[in-house]
Amino acid sequence: MSIIPTKKITFKMFRFNSETDYLPNYIDYDVDVTHENVILDILTFIKNEMDGTLSYRRSCRHGICGICSVKVNGKAILACKENVLQLVETYGSTLTIEPLSIKRAMKDLIIDKEDFWVKHDQVKPYLISDVEEHPENEHIVTPAEAEELNEADYCIQCGACHYSCPALEINDAFIGPAAFAKAYRFEADVRDDAHVERLDVINAPEQGVWDCVKCMECAEVCPKDVNPIEKITKLHNMVFSEGNPLNNIATRHAVYFKDSIAKHGQLNEAGLVIYSEKGYGMYKHLKVGAKMIAKGKAHINPLIVPKSDKLDEIKKLVEISSTAKF
Amino acid sequence: MSKLKYALFTGCTARQSTPEQMMSTMAIANKMGIELEILEEATCCGASHLQDYDEFLSLVLNARNICYAESRGMTMVTICNTCQLNTMLTKRRLDKDPEMKAKVNEKLAEVGLEYKGTSEIKHFLYAIIDDFGLDNLKKMVVKPLAEFNIAPFYGCHNIRPSETHEDSNGHENAYAPRSLDDLILACGGQNVDYDEKNKCCGFHAELQAPHTAATLTGNALMGAMDNNADWMVTPCPLCHLKLDTQYEHASKAVGRDVKLPVLHMQQMIGLAFGISGKELGLQHHVSEVNFV
User: Fold this and answer.
1) CA distance A24 to A110
2) What are A102-137's pLDDT values in tens digits?
3) pTM (2 d.p.)
């Protein structure tokens, strides 16, 4: 019988009981790991063989229930899917295992996910449609129409993106990548009638898509390749094409790029700030602006902008390729 | 080694708010014998914001930029992470989606252009590491940066999503990037490890979500400072702008004075090559570069 080679790995485990502990602590468990082991195998081994008090969530073991997500060295993963030795390759032979959100920890790796579901509720994550009670015909969705969902329906609500989003970490009001991807799933559904109603939630300042910092963490971390940031971009587009875009700093900021490219080929960087702030908001930037001018990083005259060669060609392309409705 | 030659997509920022980045790019390329032909025809990449407003237009404009690298038969080199991402995302989309490629080419045909997909797109950082080679770079170091603890700040759009690294661009691990650390070591400096090195600086939401953006900037500066960094280095002019000019807002957001000199990676290489601070544009920094 051949023996599968093993490697001794130290798992630094986050331990905390919100009912009795003031602060968490970390306990080291050394485990022999094979090339086949995933993180969930290790959690099960520790619980069964080393320390029965360890708490974590698990169910399907097949990457579909989305409940066993934890963070390893800060990276959110599905415990049932992530190979241990691949993580060791990235991080070395000590792996720190923590709950998805330390501030929401209840018992060890188990968190209170209420905030995640509250955000989902906010975007009305269901089909809103006036369905005839006794329809004469089937309501057929063509394969091409179904493809519009762009795999947004693959989300298993594991929370990996939600608890990796830096904007959400700072701004509690922000709806976040998971709920945005879910909103897109229904916005893109041809049977849904709530388009504008849902887009108004998505378009609102502080909570809406405009507060996304575009760090691409959600695209990177998603274990199902849902690519939430791609859906966030599509929601931005929908706000302009079907929704009620507000006249605010965020919408002006997006629109100005087209105007500037049509005029100069380049973005007029000073012009962008002035236009987005509608002029009077500039008081916020005077101090930084003055320093930038003093250091030769900005021109005192914001009308002086470098121009691209072949500007006529650029103007023509902007004219014939624009799909925005205004 | 045959002479390296690239089509340089400068982006808007190197021509406006970070003139020192343009200066130092040219200074080190000259010294390394890398020929950079500037794509004067190129437009803004849309910086993800035009994409929010009119995605199709952004694809057409970025495809047009790539056309001009293709017609020169060159690899396109970017010096801004966000230009890199948006150009690369366009290329990947068009190369994978023949229908969209045809739609874009229909528009380009009206100005006599065609996107073919023949040019690679890579950030200058990876052109230096993969094509020029760090061993060759080390041989050119005359003033090793041995006395400095240098904090690498990678910038999101060079490392995420990692699928944009599949082709020619660096093969970086988004969770454990190495390129900038290796570059610091090659320049003789000491690399600083800290949690925020591969995190977001907040630049893209600076106007729309100032508190979020300033907090992220503050966190990055704090992380570097608390790990004894003397200064930071970044391959992205947008990260640079945020970290270099916004320290007051950042300090307010995190409740602590945070400020460090922030160098472009080109300036760091230039210093190690013995190029003068003036030629590298160090006088253009808002957070003064006080060590040269």
Assistant:
1) 13
2) 999 999 999 999 999 999 999 999 999 988 889 898
3) 0.96
Query: Which of 6-25 (B) contact A at CB < 8 A?
Result: 12-13, 15-19
How far off is chain B from A27, nearest CA to CA, in Å?
A: 21
Burial of A91 (0-12, 13-18, 19+ CB in 10 A): middle
Q: Residue B54: its chain A contacts at CB < 8 A?
A: 237, 240, 258, 322-324
- The residue type found at A188 is A
Residue range B241-259, pLDDT digits in tens: 999 999 999 999 999 999 9
Residues of B in contact with A287 (CB under 8 A): 248
User: How far, rounded to the nearest angstrom, does the alpha carbon of residue A77 sit from its chain's CA centroid?
Assistant: 14
Q: What percent of chain A has pLDDT over 90?
A: 91
Q: What is the mean pLDDT of residues A283-308?
A: 92
CATH entry 1.20.1420.30 includes domain B134-284: no
DSSP designation for A83: B
How many residues are there in chain A?
326
Q: Which of residues 32-91 of A touch B (CB under 8 A)?
A: 73-75, 90-91
Domain B5-122 in CATH 3.90.1170.50? The answer is no
Q: Are B242 and B218 in contact (CB under 8 A)?
A: no
Residue B195 DSSP symbol = G
Q: Which domains does chain A have, with CATH numbers?
A: 7-111 (3.10.20.30), 114-241 (1.10.1060.10), 249-321 (no CATH)
* Residue ranges for chain B with pLDDT beneath 70: 1, 167-169
CB B265 within 8 A of CB B240: no
Where do the structural domains in chain B lie, given as residue ranges? Answer: 5-122, 134-284
| C-beta atoms of B160 and A220 within 8 A | yes
Is residue A176 within 8 Å of residue A159, measured between CB atoms? Answer: no
Task: Return the half-sphere exposure (C-beta side, CA atoms, 13 A cut-off) of residue A273.
Answer: 19
Which residue of chain A has the CA closest to B11?
Answer: A266
User: Tell me: the pLDDT tens digits for A252-264?
Assistant: 999 999 999 999 9
Q: ipTM, 2 decimals?
A: 0.95
